[in-house]
């Protein structure tokens, strides 16, 4: 079967599928509404598929239309990445990598990695976005990022994970707290204090490990606040809203009125790992992974 479908038809279809409104989609595409309607009708006729159910006041996707929307969104993103990379080659650049990361990875790991990587790839470009663990996984699966730095023990099938830093936890207290490194003996000394923890959605496995620490010290913490940002935790601790437990690497990069006590006598450690899509064909990703593995 021969289709007279062009790339613009897919873009037109996706605009209507996202807005579910021909006029709004036409305005976004800078074409007339009748013209857009004709293009969609032509696409449906050529494919022999009804993509939309049209009502007087609204438009709905058919099951076939919904399937096509999801698949085209995913595959056109890949096409955009291919074309963007071709442009970088044309401009004499070596490529672009999109990073996702949890905040602690930006203290030392990522800056040091990029410094070393840029020595061999001086024209490489990077996009850097801080995001929680689950969002990184979602963005890897949707090809919005190339590599993530997460605190997870497992990842979905199709993704690869490599531990790169295993570290201790630290107790975080206000600077004027009566407990210091000399007087600290056990977390049980602080069982009546409220705690500010990373939100369970940040990483369920990480949160479970933190709760395991408390469990092994024979108490359940009073959790006064949850957040996903270290700066928010430190600001709350600084102002007397509670104490916290964070990875050791998060001691750096913040100028807050707090102090840290390393919990180096407990068995629990936290691991920072790099994660990527095994099927990602971005040429420069392989070079980055070689640098990480070296």
How would you sum up this structure, described in words?
The protein has 294 residues and is an alpha/beta fold. The protein has 3 domains: 7-87, Arc Repressor Mutant, subunit A, CATH 1.10.10.10; 93-165 and 272-293, Periplasmic binding protein-like II (D-Maltodextrin-Binding Protein, domain 2); 169-268, Periplasmic binding protein-like II (D-Maltodextrin-Binding Protein, domain 2), CATH 3.40.190. 40% of the residues lie in helices and 22% in strands. It contains 9 helices and 12 strands. It has helices at 7-19, 22-29, 33-47, 63-90, 109-120, 133-141, 204-216, 230-238, 283-293, and strands at 52-54, 59-61, 96-101, 125-130, 147-150, 159-167, 169-174, 194-198, 222-227, 244-247, 258-262, 270-277. It has a 5-stranded mixed sheet, with helices on both faces. A 3-stranded antiparallel sheet has the order 10-7-11. Helix 1 (7-19) packs across helix 4. The longest helix is centred in the N-terminal third of the chain and has 28 residues, at 63-90. The radius of gyration is 25 Å and the shape is elongated.
